[in-house]
Design goal:
The protein is an alpha+beta fold. The protein has 5 helices and 17 strands.
Length: 292
């Protein structure tokens, strides 16, 4: 058992300049349907990854930036406890608006700003709005949920303090000189932190049901000319098989399956080389070590 506070990564919101390009990538290339919702006067695109309201929200904007990272908390009591921990650590925790709460399908929603300026949300409750999701012809499951994100930026020490000491994530493993993987449940990791000059999301991982689903997505990506930024491969630390596409906002979407689970007796360690095989980068890997 990790902690009874944060249970999993719930959703990610993005400000994007080209909504139609995102819809095309999600639908035509990755086989992921979308729904539309209102947020104020703007229409928001919600990706159908599973039966819940959304895991990825695309907000029209004049800039391409992360809008919010949302974590699901077990209960209102745990939300209060985490709020006290955040306040004691010097964070200002605010209540979300009723409209924000409704869009996310949450019964309780609070937020704060992390050390690099990103909005982090803590939500209680998830709204189920469907029994299944639309997929291309073929009858295969395809995407099944949101797996993890990698947050790159300065102030890695402060970010580690936030996630490890305040929010009670556990360090799973790491790779020198500055890449750290953290979990809040039995999955190998729900967030990784990496050092970079400017804050950004390096990638979001979309969980798939099987290697066949990943392979079919890979075929569709090649057939539609999607920018495959990192080729098919298997990671050394979590053993996931995946490939990456560069999305219209400039960062990566990882299409993966098969990540391991770890128990409470797991010992953090430096896992050395990044991959068992594959994962060749189209551009220079910003997290490459001398050994890789």
């Amino acid at each position: 058992m990790i902690s009874v506070g944060i249970r999993k990564l719930g959703y990610v919101g993005l400000n994007v300049t080209d909504v139609e390009a995102w819809i095309d990538l999600l639908g035509r290339t990755l086989g992921i349907g979308v729904t539309h919702a209102k947020s104020g006067s703007a229409e928001v695109v919600l990706a159908e990854l599973d039966e819940f309201k959304y895991r990825l929200a695309v907000h029209p904007s004049t800039v391409d930036t992360p809008r919010a990272v949302g974590w699901i908390v077990d209960s209102p009591d745990e939300l209060d406890r985490l709020t006290r921990r955040l306040t004691d650590a010097g964070c200002t925790v605010a209540q979300a608006t009723a409209e924000e709460k409704e869009l996310r399908g949450a019964t309780h929603l609070r937020w704060f700003t992390d050390p690099v300026g990103f909005r982090v949300e803590l939500a209680v409750g998830e709204a189920k709005v469907r029994t299944g999701v639309a997929r291309p012809a073929g009858g295969y499951p395809g995407a099944t949920g949101l797996g993890h994100l990698v947050l790159a930026g300065p102030k890695v020490a402060e970010l580690r303090e936030l996630y490890e000491s305040v929010l009670e994530f556990k360090l799973t493993d790491y790779r020198a000189p500055g890449l750290f993987f953290f979990r809040c449940n039995s999955s190998h990791h729900s967030i990784a932190l990496a050092s970079a000059p400017e804050p950004s999301i390096h990638h979001l991982e979309l969980e798939h049901a099987s290697i066949d689903d990943v392979g079919r997505a890979y075929d569709r990506a090649k057939a539609t000319g999607a920018p495959i930024s990192i080729s098919l491969g298997r990671h050394m630390n979590d053993k996931a098989i995946s490939f990456y596409v560069r999305n219209p906002s400039g960062f990566h979407l990882e299409i993966g399956c098969g990540g391991i689970e770890v128990g409470p007796d797991w010992m953090p360690h430096d896992f050395g080389v990044p991959d068992v095989w594959g994962h060749h980068h189209a551009d220079a890997n910003p997290f490459a070590s001398p050994k890789s």
